Amino acid sequence: MEELLIQNEWWERGEISKEKAKVYHRKVYKKALDTFSKYRQILVLTGLRRTGKTTIMYQIIDDLIKRGIDPKKILYFSFDKKIEDILEILKSYGRITKINWRKERIFLFLDEIHKLQDWSSKIKVIYDSLPNVKICISGSASLTMESKVIDNLAGRYFKIEVKPLSLQEYAELYYGKTINNYDLYKIELESVFQDYIHKPFPELVRIKDREKICEYIKSIIIEKILGSDIPIVFRNVRVDLLITLVEIFFRNPGMIVNLDEISRKLHIHKITLKEHIHYLEFGKMIRLIRNFRPSILSESRKMSKIYPLHPCFSFAYFADVEKGRIYENLVMNAMDLTNYFREGKLEVDFIKRNGDILPIEVKSKKNIGADDIKNLVKFGKKFDVKKAMIVSEEEERNVSVDGIDISIVPITKILF
What we know:
Elements: H1 2-7, H2 10-13, H3 27-38, E1 42-46, H4 53-66, E2 74-78, H5 86-97, E3 106-111, H6 119-129, E4 133-139, H7 147-153, E5 157-161, H8 167-175, H9 186-198, H10 210-233, H11 239-251, E6 255-256, H12 259-266, H13 270-282, E7 286-291, E8 305-308, H14 312-317, H15 323-335, E9 339-343, E10 346-354, E11 356-362, H16 370-383, E12 387-392, E13 397-401, E14 404-410, H17 411-415
Parallel strand pairs: 1-4, 1-5, 2-3, 3-4, 7-9, 11-12, 12-14
Antiparallel strand pairs: 6-8, 7-8, 9-10, 10-11, 13-14
Helix pairs in contact: 6-7, 8-9, 11-13
């Protein structure tokens, strides 16, 4: 009961502290608030540790209190500190506040819920049995990748991913002002670009010591996910293997995965390797990018590339990662890309599916020439594609080659 009082200070104070409900609102906050306010479905916040999911919960709580909701009708519990059954939490809540949670309209916020065994079936019972309870949950992993979640909560939730900071958000926190126009603030954005690559988390914006930044990312984010979050959810996890794999993948962003070769070198069964790669996907450590085929059904994971979710993971372990790979990683993350193309000698960094097909090349230089364009032209002719993109350090401009319109876009604009 004492734990609940500590975690729900607004029951006594009538308000939430600014240290919890921070003044700065991330761009995803409005989407989260609107979703929570408009729909009965559960709001699910997923994403890496330290991206601000808990802060968004606190900010929604702050909004509820300011709109006149009785603070005692708002219940928050974090499973990061202690694991308790949800019904037991609700019973303790009722005893403390004298709120009849079975009948009265209440707002339930459950943080780091993936640490609770069989959480999705328990949430389903509350959602189906108590329509008066409005629910928001969060987890530092891909909560909806589990088949049980899909089965238990199908049609009952809306998921919003809270990603690392965008370049715009980083700059706003760094300069302490609104930056809503790329062209107007281009110089400021370029000046913080390199720092942003290394530390795209709200708590790190003001920290300059590289050693402390690397230690934060390794110990507070990566090692906690590998050593705590993943083993809680899955059985028979080899943490030592997870650590070995992240070091391989972080050292070589964009490497093509040869399962046979890796399993042979590490002396592990290929099934074990596949399982642990899946665990890393679940934990938001890596992203798999599949080789593009016009039919999604013909795509295979066999020739997948693996990138860290963000290149700051690579920098936390290795200071000398190739610049071009880092830029690819940034663009993949910012544009949420899921495909590349490789066939024979023809290779294109990324293919974006959004109705139309858009081939994208990423270059870590300023002067784009014919050699940088040729693969886009070949791809365009092969698949009858009329538009393409190059992301680079060059100023924005457009070129047309053999009937294919190619947009050259600065990487800072993509990350904005």
